[in-house]
Specification:
Blueprint: E1 10-13, E2 19-20, E3 27-28, H1 34-37, E4 43-46, E5 52-58, E6 63-68, E7 73-78, E8 83-88, E9 93-98, E10 104-108, E11 113-117, E12 123-127, E13 129-130, E14 133-134, E15 141-143, E16 149-153, H2 156-159, E17 175-179, E18 185-190, E19 194-199, E20 205-210, E21 220-226, E22 231-238, E23 248-250, E24 256-259, E25 263-267, E26 273-278, E27 285-288, E28 294-299, E29 302-307
Antiparallel strand pairs: 1-8, 2-4, 3-26, 4-29, 5-6, 6-7, 7-8, 9-10, 10-11, 11-12, 13-14, 15-16, 16-17, 17-18, 19-20, 20-21, 21-22, 23-24, 24-25, 25-26, 27-28, 28-29
Amino acid sequence: MTEGPLLIPARLRAPGEPVAAKVDAPIIHRDEARAVLGAARLVTLYDQASWSEGPVWWPREQTLVWSDIVGRRVLGWRQDGAVDVLLDATPFINGNAVLPDGALVHCEHGRRAVSRSDDTGVATPIVTAAEGSRLNAPNDIIVAADGAIWFSDPTFGLENPKQGVPGTSESGRTAICRVDTNGVARRMVDMTQPNGLAFSADGNTLYASQTPEHGEGEIAIFAFDWDGASLSNRRHFATVADGIPDGFTVDRRGWLWSSSSAGVEVFDAAGLHLAMVPTPGLCSNCAFDSDEARLFITGGPHLWMLPLG
């Protein structure tokens, strides 16, 4: 348990109803998506962040957690519509995930670390290096069914002073990393600026996006086979029509829901494009609640929600 004073959250938004977003209805390309998205309409839950990222549903608290990277806060949307500050003056936290014991883990650009927070309002680094060299700027993070932590480690947070602390890569590598349940971190596979991560529902496929900014490689979502020990069979999975696949999530059907500059692009397990959910501004990431009845979407100052049929 992290030591520190008990958290008394600062409230940014009082309880209240969401506001209908001024945006077109989902664009459906395949019949199988119609039952899920045909009646879905986007609502706005919050619009006062600086740069929203890293959404994750926190079952223990029935709260949607997300980061305001530039505003240096981790925020929580409550079921009654209130928004609280969960962590303040953060070291540019980006991705968030939930551990099996209910604690949160975070990707920190500023401290070049993966950290953990419990109920005290304090995040404590738990991983700062892999294979003898310091991490770059951990970006997105997920927790696998076996409790292992996976995160992407590009250099974006070392290059953009608005979202991190300028620095250089010690390893000279940008990779997808895994932290086993004993706390040992390894670089599992190199990618050119890896970004979003998600596992398939059965845990046998890892999806990872590659989003280089200067033409060093293909911008796309790739899939890997995971056998419990190593990643193999890297293959192209999908690209989005506009912008980049910054962050994404995979549902129990095997559909992958990816961010883009136009909204959320939906693909089936074979990479077939099923639908697009327009958002009023650029979309950065998305996450479901426990029942997959609601999709939460981050982008710019916004947190949106899409109730699903």
